[in-house]
């Protein structure tokens, strides 16, 4: 479909209407394709662990019937695969719930420094399992903003989890909350708060960065999955930040680390 083929004569107004209609259809088609891709990807992501579970059921009924050691091992794998399916379904449901609320700005006011401290503490054991420690830097005084505490908590959890997953083993994750520097060109020109999660991982090649928030986009497909990611974490982050009329900024330097910053407006 080429919008250029639309004749602008006769009457310009008709041409204008036709032009609008055609570009609407183009957008509809792009949205339809994205939906179809999403359903295909989600189905594929679910089918892989399901196929594994079905395969092991057959093995348990057949070849491993009288082998308790193999049974224990296979049940462990099946439990992991079932857990992977559960996490994927949770994330899919979470994403669609966020999309529904995306056009309603959050109503509550949240102390972001306190929220970050609570999330860091709650995530501590999970992060420690991966050998990571969190260094918290909270600006003095209360840094409050209009926000949905549950959703911003999820943003912090997803970013911290990624920092532990993809960061350097035994490395430090720096989590900070501070008022946005006024006059910094990268932020909108009004009062805001910046949440930042920085890791010491291998970093992300520049060309991947704009695509990281796409659903199921992974830099290393196999690794992302085996490490336990659903491929939806950053898509969820992006939608939550959009709902808050905020900005997500991803910076990474290969060999040094990655920093994920979320700017949120300090006032509605
Ligand atoms: P996943 O569940 O795969 O982690 P995400 O949407 O959270 O999905 O992240 C998408 C991809 O972005 C990951 O698979 C990984 O390749 C990359 N990524 C995310 N966070 C980091 C990070 N802190 N360091 C390096 N790569 C990252």
TrEMBL record:
Q: Name one GO cellular component term.
A: plasma membrane
Which is an annotated GO molecular function term of this record?
A: ATP binding
The keyword tRNA processing is annotated on this UniProt entry: no
- Which of UniProt's keywords are assigned here? ATP-binding, Cell membrane, Kinase, Membrane, Nucleotide-binding, Phosphoprotein, Transferase, Two-component regulatory system
Q: What is this protein called?
A: histidine kinase
Query: rRNA-binding: is it a keyword of this entry?
Result: no
Recorded catalytic activity of this chain's protein: ATP + protein L-histidine = ADP + protein N-phospho-L-histidine
Signal peptide location in the record?
Answer: none
Write out the annotated subcellular location: Cell membrane
User: What fragment of the full-length protein is this?
Assistant: 192 to 459 of 459
Q: A GO term (biological process) for this protein?
A: cellular response to phosphate starvation
Q: Which residue ranges does the record assign to the Histidine kinase domain?
A: 41-268
Q: What is its EC number?
A: 2.7.13.3
């Amino acid at each position: 479909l080429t919008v250029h083929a639309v004749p602008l004569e006769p009457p310009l107004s008709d041409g204008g209407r036709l032009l609008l209609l055609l570009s609407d259809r183009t957008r509809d088609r792009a949205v339809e394709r994205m939906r179809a891709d999403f359903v295909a990807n989600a189905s594929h992501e679910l089918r892989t662990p399901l196929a594994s579970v079905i395969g092991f059921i057959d093995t348990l009924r057949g070849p491993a019937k009288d082998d308790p050691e193999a049974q224990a091992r296979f049940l462990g794998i099946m439990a992991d695969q079932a857990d992977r399916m559960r996490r994927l379904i949770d994330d899919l449901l979470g994403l669609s719930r966020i999309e529904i609320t995306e056009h309603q700005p959050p109503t509550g006011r949240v102390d972001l420094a306190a929220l970050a401290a609570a999330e860091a503490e709650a995530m501590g054991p999970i992060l420690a399992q991966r050998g990571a420690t969190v260094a918290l830097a909270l600006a003095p005084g209360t840094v409050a903003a209009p926000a949905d505490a549950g959703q911003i908590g999820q943003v912090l959890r997803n970013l911290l989890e990624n920092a532990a997953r993809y960061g350097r083993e035994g490395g430090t994750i720096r989590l900070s909350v501070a008022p946005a520097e006024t006059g910094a060109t990268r932020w909108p020109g009004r009062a805001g708060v910046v949440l930042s999660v920085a890791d010491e991982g291998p970093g992300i090649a520049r060309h991947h960065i704009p695509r990281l928030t796409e659903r199921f986009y992974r830099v290393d497909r196999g690794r992302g999955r085996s490490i336990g990611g659903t491929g939806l974490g950053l898509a969820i982050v992006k939608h939550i930040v959009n709902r808050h009329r905020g900005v997500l900024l991803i910076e990474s330097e290969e060999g040094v680390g990655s920093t994920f910053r979320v700017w949120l407006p300090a006032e509605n």
